[in-house]
Amino acid sequence: MSQISEAEAVVMEVLWRSHPLGADEVVTALASRDWAEPTIKTLLNRLLTKGAISASRDGRRYLYSPVLQRQAWVAEQSEGFLDRVFDGRVAPLVAHFSQRGELSAQDIAELKQLILELGHD
C-alpha cells in the first residue's frame, strides 16, 4: 500500500472513528478544517486508489470504509519515525522527551510498568 499523506491521514481518522460514511458525512466531520468539499473528495479518491479505503454503492452515493487498519498504520508510521530520527532505537526517543520535560508522572508510571512486563517474558 502506498504511503498516505498527512491530509489523507486526517480523512482516515474520520473513517476509523465511524464507518461506512458518505462523502457528505466526511465533509461535515471535517468542517473545522476549512477544507473545500472538492478537496475532501479528492483525498477520498486518492485513498481509494491507494487501497486504504473501500467504497460501496448506496443508491446514488458511495459509502467509504477503511481497509487500512489504524493499528497497522500507526505501527508503520512509528517504525519509520524511529528509523529516520532515532536510528531505530526507542531509548533515545524516550530520553529526548524526558530531557525536554514532556513526560508526565502518568507517562513515567506507564513506561515503568511496560519495562516490568517486558522483563517477565
From TrEMBL:
Q: Which SUPFAM superfamilies match?
A: Winged helix' DNA-binding domain
Q: Which family does it belong to?
A: Belongs to the BlaI transcriptional regulatory family.
Q: Which organism is it from?
A: Stenotrophomonas bentonitica
Q: What is this protein called?
A: BlaI/MecI/CopY family transcriptional regulator
Query: What domain of life does the native source organism fall in?
Result: Bacteria
Q: Which UniProt keywords apply?
A: DNA-binding, Transcription, Transcription regulation
InterPro entries in alphabetical order: BlaI_family (IPR005650), WH-like_DNA-bd_sf (IPR036388), WH_DNA-bd_sf (IPR036390)
- Give one Pfam family, short name only: Penicillinase_R
